C-alpha cells in the first residue's frame, strides 16, 4: 500500500526540502504541498520548479491540517520552529527532519512535538556545496543513504511511513541510534569537513609566511582540489553541525591531530620504514573504500 | 626549429617516463628511444605500447651515445643512478628528471653529472594513483603544469630544449628556483597528501575505539571519498617525497596542526561567530581555486 499524504508542509524549502517536495509531487504522493519560508524569491522558484504548490510565511498557517511535516531548516533553528508550532500538530501527524546531527536534536524535537504527533529523525546524506531549491532535483537522493534515527519513543508506523518516503526518493534507508549516528557522521563527514576547512586556512598562512611573492594556489593540482572541495560548503551550516556535534568532532579532531603529529615525527626522524608503514596502512584502507 | 634527438635514454620506464617516451616517438622527436630498467614485464609492455624501441638492463650501455637522458626513477635512487653513469655522459648530452622534489636533488645531480653534460631539473605535475607504463598515455601531460628548476649552473640552450619537450607534450611550462619549488609543492601537494594519509589512519582509529560494532567506512559519502582519494597513492613514492622535502613538510604540517587546533578550540568553546569566520575564510579561498 503506497504512502499518500493529503497535506504536506515543508518548513525550509532549500536544496533538501525543495528536492523532497519535487519528488512527493512528481510521484503523486501528496495532494497538496505547502512551503513555509521567508525568502520569497526562493519560494517563487520552488513553485516554478514544482517543489511546492504554494507558500506561506506563517508556519502555524502552513502546518494547520498537515498530515506530514518536513523540517528542513538549519538545525540551529529547530528549537525556535518547534516551539512555535510543535505543540499545535494534529493527531497522527508525522514530523520528520533532514538535519546532519541527530542525538541532541532528536531529543529536543521529541520534547517539543505534541504528544499527538509522531516525530521521526532523518538524515538524507545528499549534500552539495550548492544551496537553495534552484540546485534541487528529483534525483538528488537517488542511490544515496538516508539514515533514520528512531528512539524508544518512535511510533513504528510513522517510522515505516518515513522510510517509504525516502525509498520512493531512491535512497538506501538505514536505521541507527541517533547518538551512534553522530559518532559515525562525525567521523565520515564532519571530521573531513573540518580537515578541509583547516587545510585551506593553513595554505593561506603558508602563502603569507613562506611564498608571499607568488600566487601559491595557482600551483594546485587535482589532489589539492579534491582534498579541499568540501571547504566550499556553507559556513553557517557547518558552524551549526560542529556545535551540535561538538563532543564527537572535538574528540575526533584530537585523534586526527595525533596521527598528523605521528606522521610528522616519523618524517622529522627520517624514519623511512615507519613512514612507509603508516602510508601503506592508509592506502590499504582507502582502496577498500573504492571497492565499497 | 623543432627539437629532435638521435638517441633518447629513459631511465625508469614507469607512468611518467613511459608516457614521455610515447610522446617523443609518436611526434617523431627521437630517432631511437631506449628504456633502462629491471622489470622485464613492464619493459616489454613499454615496447608494445610504443613508449620505447628497445630496453636494456645495463644503464651504461643504454646511455652510451645518448643526446637526451630522462631520469624517471624514484628520487631516492638518483644518487645510485648518477654515480653509475653520470660521469660517462658525452659532450652536450642533456639530462633531465621528473622528480617531485627538486632543491636537494638538483644540487646532488649537478654534482654527479659530467661537466660535459647539461642537467635540467624538471617536475611534470601529472601524477595518478596508478603507476607503471601500462597506465601511461600521450595525453598524460596535456594541460598540466611542468615546473623546470634551472640554477646558476644551468645551460640556457639545454633549458630551452627541455622546455620545448614539455611544451610538445602539451604542458604549461614554468621556471622556478628548485628550493622555492619545494616550498610551493610542499604546500599544494605534499601537505594535502600527508593530510589525506593521516585522515584515513585517524578514521581507522575512530572505528576501532568508537564504533567497533559497525563498518564505519561503509557510511562514507562523496566528501570523504574526495578528501582522501590521494591516500591511495604509492607509499614508497610518498615516503621518499616526505623525506627529501622534510623541512618544508614538517613546517607546513605544524601550521596545519595549529589551524586544526584553533578550529577545535573554537568548537570546544562553542564560539559560533569564531567558527563561522574561520569557515568563511576557507570557503572564500577555496572558491577562488575553483575559478583558477
Q: How would you summarize what this structure contains?
A:
Chain A is α/β, with parallel strands linked by helices. The first copy, chain A, is 51% helix and 13% strand.
Major sheet attributes of chain A: 6 strands, parallel
The radius of gyration of chain A is 22 Å
CATH structural architecture of the largest domain in chain A: 3-Layer(aba) Sandwich
- What's the β-strand tally of chain A? 9
The CATH class of the largest domain in chain A turns out to be: Alpha Beta
Count, helices of chain A: 11
Count of domain modules of chain A: 2
Largest interface: A-B, 95 and 95 residues
Protein described:
The structure is a homodimer of 292-residue chains. Chain A has 292 residues and is of the alpha/beta class. Chain A folds into two domains: 5-176, NAD(P)-binding Rossmann-like Domain (Rossmann fold, 3-Layer(aba) Sandwich), CATH 3.40.50; 180-291, Orthogonal Bundle (6-phosphogluconate dehydrogenase C-terminal fold). Helix content of chain A is 51%, strand content 13%. The first copy, chain A, has helices spanning 15-26, 40-48, 59-63, 78-85, 103-112, 156-168, 178-210, 222-228, 235-244, 246-268, 272-291, and strands at residues 5-11, 30-36, 54-56, 68-71, 94-97, 118-120, 122-124, 145-148, 172-175. In chain A, the strands form two sheets. In chain A, strands 3-2-1-4-5-6 form a six-stranded parallel beta sheet, sandwiched between helices. In chain A, strands 7-8-9 form a three-stranded mixed beta sheet, with helices on one face. In chain A, strand 8, helix 6 and strand 9 (172-175) form a beta-alpha-beta unit. In chain A, helix 4 runs parallel beside helix 5 and helix 7 (178-210) crosses helix 10. Chain A is elongated and about 70 Å long. The model of chain A has no long low-confidence stretch (mean pLDDT 95). Chains A and B meet through helix 7, helix 8, helix 9, helix 10 and helix 11 of A and helix 7, helix 8, helix 9, helix 10 and helix 11 of B.
Amino acid at each position: 500500500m503506497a504512502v499518500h499524504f493529503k497535506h504536506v508542509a515543508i518548513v525550509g524549502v532549500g536544496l533538501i526540502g525543495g528536492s523532497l517536495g519535487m519528488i512527493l509531487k512528481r510521484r503523486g504522493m501528496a495532494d497538496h504541498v505547502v512551503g513555509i519560508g521567508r525568502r520569497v524569491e526562493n519560494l517563487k522558484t520552488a513553485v516554478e520548479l514544482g517543489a511546492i504548490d504554494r507558500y506561506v510565511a506563517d508556519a502555524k498557517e502552513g502546518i494547520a491540517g498537515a498530515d506530514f511535516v518536513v523540517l528542513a531548516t538549519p538545525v540551529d533553528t529547530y528549537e525556535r520552529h518547534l516551539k512555535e508550532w510543535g505543540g499545535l500538530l494534529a493527531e497522527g501527524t508525522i514530523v520528520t527532519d533532514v538535519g546532519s546531527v541527530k542525538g541532541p536534536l532528536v531529543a529536543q524535537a521529541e520534547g517539543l512535538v505534541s504528544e499527538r504527533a509522531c516525530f521521526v529523525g532523518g538524515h538524507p546524506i545528499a549534500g552539495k556545496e550548492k544551496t537553495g531549491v534552484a540546485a534541487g532535483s528529483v534525483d538528488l537522493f537517488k542511490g544515496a543513504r538516508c539514515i533514520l534515527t528512531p528512539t524508544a519513543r518512535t511510533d513504528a508506523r510513522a517510522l515505516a511511513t518515513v522510510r517509504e518516503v525516502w525509498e520512493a526518493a531512491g535512497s538506501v534507508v538505514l536505521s541507527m541510534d541517533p547518538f551512534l549516528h553522530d559518532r559515525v557522521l562525525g567521523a565520515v563527514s564532519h571530521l573531513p569537513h573540518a580537515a578541509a576547512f583547516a587545510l585551506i586556512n593553513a595554505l593561506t598562512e603558508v602563502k603569507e609566511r613562506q611564498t608571499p611573492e607568488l600566487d601559491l594556489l595557482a600551483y594546485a593540482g587535482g589532489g589539492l582540489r579534491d582534498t579541499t572541495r568540501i571547504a566550499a560548503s556553507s559556513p553557517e551550516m557547518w558552524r551549526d553541525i560542529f556545535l551540535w556535534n561538538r563532543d564527537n568532532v572535538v574528540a575526533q579532531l584530537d585523534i586526527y591531530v595525533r596521527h598528523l603529529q605521528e606522521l610528522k615525527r616519523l618524517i622529522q626522524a627520517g624514519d623511512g620504514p615507519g613512514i612507509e608503514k603508516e602510508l601503506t596502512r592508509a592506502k590499504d584502507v582507502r582502496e577498500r573504500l573504492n571497492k565499497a
